[in-house]
Structure to design on (690 residues):
């Protein structure tokens, strides 16, 4: 039996249509002239080629942008089995095998076939225009005869009745011919209804008119539009009649475990404090999830704040179209916005296709409407805090300082941010994560906030960070200087990572349990304390209490680095005092070497006294530690020298004693014996020296 193959398109503008595959020149692509032309943004001009051989079908990717996949596996060239799904960009197709030899002798209902342009009666839906392109004529579709009592036709199949079979039926009975025509008309009607998705589709609902919609062109995906598939995901959205809530078309994405798709509207102009409301009709099935998001950016300034997106809750298990909304106020510093559609099926995608790990998302009538203005969440002097969805932004006058600050669980994406619990305090705004474990606090420190750099405080003391860094036990992050000073007080020692990019720092904090970070912008009390510490340090230096002076300057740096000129003074004075102290300690090295060479116990003692004096003046500092180490060294060397000197002196005195004894100088002998015993603890007995 001879066989041939066809590809059935499962989504997009050609959804439900089947295309025969013959020879080795069957090409798939977006450009005109392709055997299967898929006018979808996710499909490349020359996307893939399918070839037929004795073993079946092989498919080869032609260097497409979004790739070709069989099931969930991305391929360059592979065999394609009957029933398998092959995906070109975001368009899914299924390979079918059709028998080419059938018995046509029975006539009647078994002779309903799909034929070409050779006199047959064809009942098929006119090709729909493809958004953003001029549609090419769809290839004629052939399907082989099916049994007379077969079940209802599959979605979107084309049905024709050959003229030969119609004539044969007329010879048998006029009623038979009429029945054939009625059957064909009924099949075409059923195909039309099913191609519209049955109960899932709009049924011809008119496209609504929305007042104030910033996405007026293409918001219902009926014609050309400026929506784009972003490169963030492995899958992509495509046009589909089954995804229509109103009009003829909507957007849909079919995903398996580990895949995501992000679609973005065109950028639109917005203004500071404008309230934006995103809305869409959404249907979600299987394991898929969808989030609506609004991305904000700045289009016209010399130093752009970092764009960021705020997303709503994940939408899942919504079998019927439902309206979903997301609102936020445009913060200061941003003047452009666009709507995002983010679909995902969680998982690693490493196994075989599993229906339980797949899903489909349909979206239509996606709008972005502007309404009344939004007010800042908090205003402290010149600082304005804007709560934008689940993100917090900080501005001063017209400068963006912190952007996109949000909380999320470790291991999740930024779009899974959780609600912020904010409290305005006298010196700033406090965030309450609710005591949950495993939370990340993430934000971007914009270049405007980094004039004085970014420093960490905590276990490692005050440390100015210049490039990418990781630090443990951090209690505070200090940004800027002077009147532009900021502090993020973490409340508990936490691990912090910082990535430097384009003059900004992207900061991620692994919050410790119980941490309630404070974004501080007022520092009057801290500045007063810093001034007092500086005065006390200078007084200690004048009275020679150099160790206390060093300690006070270090305390200012570690806990109150909020006045730039005092920080510079503290760093300068500490450097001078430490250098002077260590030089004094090192100057004793030469004297100790001299004492050792000439075996001068007195010089050793003199060096020890100098080292003790230095340790006293620099008590509590690094210099004291160095001086005390010098004292310990002198004590060790002096003890060794004195032991050796004592031994030699005893030997000399004993020699004198022997001489006195030989001369019978009893008085002097008694005195010498007493001296040796008292000074050197040498007992010689009462007789002559042995």
């Amino acid at each position: 039996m001879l066989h041939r193959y066809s590809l059935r398109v499962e989504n997009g503008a050609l959804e439900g249509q089947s295309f025969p595959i013959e020879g080795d020149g069957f090409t798939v692509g977006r450009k005109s002239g392709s055997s299967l032309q898929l006018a979808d943004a996710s499909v490349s001009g020359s996307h893939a080629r399918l070839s037929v051989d004795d073993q079946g079908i092989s498919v080869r990717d032609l260097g497409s942008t979004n790739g070709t996949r069989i099931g969930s596996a991305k391929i360059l060239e592979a065999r394609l089995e009957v029933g398998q799904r092959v995906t070109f960009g975001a368009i899914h197709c299924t390979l079918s095998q059709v028998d080419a030899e059938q018995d046509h002798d029975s006539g009647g209902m078994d002779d309903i076939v799909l034929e070409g342009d050779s006199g047959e009666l064809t009942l098929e839906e006119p090709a729909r225009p493809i958004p953003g392109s001029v549609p090419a004529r769809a290839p004629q579709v052939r399907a082989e005869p099916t049994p007379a009592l077969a079940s209802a036709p599959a979605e979107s199949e084309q049905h024709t009745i050959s003229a030969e079979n119609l004539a044969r039926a007329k010879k048998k009975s006029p009623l038979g011919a009429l029945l054939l025509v009625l059957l064909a008309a009924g099949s075409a009607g059923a195909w039309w209804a099913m191609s519209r998705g049955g109960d899932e589709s709009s049924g011809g609902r008119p496209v609504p008119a929305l007042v104030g919609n910033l996405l007026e062109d293409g918001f219902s995906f009926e014609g050309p539009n400026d929506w784009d598939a972003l490169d963030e995901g492995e899958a992509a959205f495509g046009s589909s009649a089954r995804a229509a809530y109103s009009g003829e078309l909507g957007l849909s994405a079919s995903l398996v475990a580990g895949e995501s798709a992000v679609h973005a509207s065109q950028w639109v102009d917005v203004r500071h404090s404008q309230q934006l409301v995103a809305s869409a009709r959404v249907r979600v099935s299987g394991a898929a999830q969808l989030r609506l998001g609004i991305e904000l950016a700045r289009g016209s300034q010399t130093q752009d704040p970092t764009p960021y997106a705020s997303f709503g809750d994940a939408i899942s298990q919504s079998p019927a179209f439902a309206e979903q909304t997301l609102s936020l106020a445009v913060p200061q510093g941003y003047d452009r916005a666009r709507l995002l559609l983010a679909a995902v099926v969680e998982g690693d995608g490493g196994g075989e296709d599993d229906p339980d790990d797949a899903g489909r998302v349909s979206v239509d009538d996606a709008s972005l409407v502007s309404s009344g203005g939004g007010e800042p969440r908090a205003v402290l002097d010149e600082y304005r805090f804007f709560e934008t969805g689940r993100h917090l932004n900080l501005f001063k006058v017209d400068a963006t300082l912190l952007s996109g600050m949000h909380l999320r669980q470790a291991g999740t994406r930024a779009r899974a941010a959780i609600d912020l619990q904010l409290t305005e305090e006298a010196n700033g705004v406090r965030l309450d994560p609710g005591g949950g474990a495993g939370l990340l606090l993430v934000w971007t420190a914009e270049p405007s906030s980094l004039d004085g750099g970014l420093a960490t405080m905590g276990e490692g003391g005050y440390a100015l960070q210049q490039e990418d860094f990781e630090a443990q036990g951090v209690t505070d992050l200090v940004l800027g200087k002077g009147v532009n000073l900021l502090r993020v007080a973490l409340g508990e020692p936490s691990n912090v990572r910082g990535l430097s990019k384009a003059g900004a720092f992207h900061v991620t904090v692994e919050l410790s349990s119980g941490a309630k970070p404070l974004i501080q912008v007022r520092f009057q009390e801290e500045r007063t304390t810093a001034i007092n510490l500086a005065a006390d340090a200078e007084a200690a230096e004048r009275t020679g209490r150099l160790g206390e002076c060093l300690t006070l300057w270090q305390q200012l740096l570690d806990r109150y680095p909020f006045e730039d000129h005092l920080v510079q003074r503290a760093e300068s004075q500490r450097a001078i005092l430490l250098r002077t102290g260590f030089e004094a300690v090192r100057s004793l090295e030469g004297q100790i070497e001299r004492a050792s060479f000439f075996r001068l116990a007195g010089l050793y003692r003199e060096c020890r006294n100098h080292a003790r004096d230095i340790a006293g003046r620099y008590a509590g500092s690094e210099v004291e530690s160095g001086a005390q180490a010098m004292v310990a060294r002198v004590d060790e060397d002096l003890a060794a020298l004195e032991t050796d000197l004592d031994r030699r002196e005893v030997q000399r005195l004993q020699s004198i004693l022997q001489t006195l004894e030989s001369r019978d100088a009893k008085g002097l002998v008694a005195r010498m014996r007493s001296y040796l015993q008292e000074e050197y603890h040498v007992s010689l007995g009462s007789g002559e020296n042995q």
